[in-house]
Amino acid sequence: MPPPGGCSINVDSSDESEDTKSLIQNDPAPPQCCSARLNLAVLMFLGFSVVYGLRVNLSVAMVAMVNATNPSVDRNTSVAPACPLPPGTENTSDTLQQPDGTPQYTWNPETQGWLLGAFFFGYLCTQIPGGYLAGHYGGSKFLGLGGVTFPAMMAMWARWAPPLERSRLMTLSGSGGAFGAFVALSITGFICEKLGWPAVFYLCGGAGCFWALFWFFLVADDPRTHPRISEEEREYIISSVGAQGTGHGWSVPLLSMVLSVPLWAVIITQMCFNWTFYTLLTSLPTYMNSILHFDLQSNGFLSALPYLGNLLVSLLSGVAADALIERKVFSITV
């Protein structure tokens, strides 16, 4: 039974319009192995890994970029650190030893905070218009250029993901962010110590350029225009997604969106998740260094552990969600 003002993809009614009729089909699905939709999910996973590697490497590299022996900082303050220094390190320098010629900066904590937060000013202003444009023009260009990644991903899966596979395909692709954060946090400290902090940005940027070559060559916005998809898979995706796989045009039902309680539930939940996710992503390495006094390599590894858990839970939850939908345990509004 669909809720008021919505419809359920578990419900089938001859009175429903083309846009709202049941999307779940009983026809057997083409195998996912080596399919175009699975290839898309894997490429998205790798793309999100690179994007979040680029986002998180500054958090760890910042520890190496800042000169902790800056004489303008009063180290003889009467305020004790939150955690005592390890025995034998009270009179030693906190400066990380890096290759000769590696620059360091005398940024105070306030300046470091502005630098770590600068990314989010652009992020705040581009998500809604980016998602709107991705829905109209297709998400591959926006995601390939590394811009509005999550809105572009949603726009692409609206056209590519069959309802019974949507949760696991989206969680597989989106969990690349947790994987990228885990890998970047784990190895950034080692790279800073061996090659210097500038190498972190060159390596991550090079990986992004390399990934983009495959992305623009192998990916299409719509299964209808994909040159290498099988006819069986193309027909399966088009028939299961239905009219939802077409562009939304320029008109947006703003009033209906503002008055939609389920939409606000999703927005508030996502805001709470993003607050904790990005707070840890940007601030945890600095906290581990300044307050808990971990060395850079241990700092990176320990800061990465929450994202390993995030990765595993995301993948399992996607499989579980699709299983619940297939068994019609929950009614899902669209």
TrEMBL record:
<feature type="region of interest" description="Disordered">
    <location>
        <begin position="73"/>
        <end position="103"/>
    </location>
</feature>
<dbReference type="Pfam" id="PF07690">
    <property type="entry name" value="MFS_1"/>
</dbReference>
<feature type="region of interest" description="Disordered">
    <location>
        <begin position="1"/>
        <end position="28"/>
    </location>
</feature>
<feature type="transmembrane region" description="Helical">
    <location>
        <begin position="40"/>
        <end position="66"/>
    </location>
</feature>
<feature type="transmembrane region" description="Helical">
    <location>
        <begin position="304"/>
        <end position="325"/>
    </location>
</feature>
<feature type="compositionally biased region" description="Polar residues">
    <location>
        <begin position="89"/>
        <end position="103"/>
    </location>
</feature>
<dbReference type="InterPro" id="IPR050382">
    <property type="entry name" value="MFS_Na/Anion_cotransporter"/>
</dbReference>
<dbReference type="GO" id="GO:0006820">
    <property type="term" value="P:monoatomic anion transport"/>
</dbReference>
<dbReference type="InterPro" id="IPR011701">
    <property type="entry name" value="MFS"/>
</dbReference>
<feature type="transmembrane region" description="Helical">
    <location>
        <begin position="199"/>
        <end position="218"/>
    </location>
</feature>
<dbReference type="InterPro" id="IPR036259">
    <property type="entry name" value="MFS_trans_sf"/>
</dbReference>
<feature type="transmembrane region" description="Helical">
    <location>
        <begin position="114"/>
        <end position="135"/>
    </location>
</feature>
<keyword id="KW-0472">Membrane</keyword>
<keyword id="KW-0812">Transmembrane</keyword>
<dbReference type="GO" id="GO:0016324">
    <property type="term" value="C:apical plasma membrane"/>
</dbReference>
<keyword id="KW-1133">Transmembrane helix</keyword>
<feature type="transmembrane region" description="Helical">
    <location>
        <begin position="250"/>
        <end position="268"/>
    </location>
</feature>
<dbReference type="GO" id="GO:0022857">
    <property type="term" value="F:transmembrane transporter activity"/>
</dbReference>
<feature type="transmembrane region" description="Helical">
    <location>
        <begin position="172"/>
        <end position="192"/>
    </location>
</feature>
<feature type="transmembrane region" description="Helical">
    <location>
        <begin position="142"/>
        <end position="160"/>
    </location>
</feature>
<protein>
    <submittedName>
        <fullName>Solute carrier family 17 (Sodium phosphate), member 3</fullName>
    </submittedName>
</protein>
